[in-house]
Amino acid sequence: MADVPSDRGFWAALLKRVRRATRGRQDAEDLLHAAYVRLERYRATNKVENPAAFLVRAAVNIGVDKHRHERHVVDEPVGVGALDFADPKRLPDEVLAARERLRRVTHGLAQLPPRTREVFLMHRLDGLRYREIADRLGISQSAVEKHIAKAALFLTEWTEGW
Predict the structure, then answer these.
(1) Given 3-state DSSP classes, what are the helix, strand and coil percentages for the chain, each rounded to the nearest 5?
(2) Distance CA 136, CA 128 (A)
(3) For 72-88, what is each residue's pLDDT tens digit?
(4) Structure pTM?
């Protein structure tokens, strides 16, 4: 890597920036190492104007990702995860309530104007992005946003109390 210095001073300064940006995380060296690996992978297909800034930003992003992941990991006592205390089947009243909500939403969808319903379903069911919907239907992205907002507001009010 010709444009990333190999001297200790450069890396010490980078490590200091990563520690400051990650509020003194103890694993700052690991984050910087992972960022270096990410930089090498990225540079295989892209040009990087400022590798030092890339390394710091990537290290911070990796730290954020690790923090989010650690926040969602639940510590269980050994052996508890293997036991099934809860019945995986839903209770009959839960199933009935879910069916009723689905019926109500389906009826609400039928109340929407056809274009609004089409746009909303393309986004929610097909997983298309606003730009993709706009391109497919030949409308502006702003129009797509308005259709989705209109549908979401209507369905929220329609299903109020369910």
Answers:
(1) 70, 0, 30
(2) 10
(3) 655 545 444 444 445 56
(4) 0.43
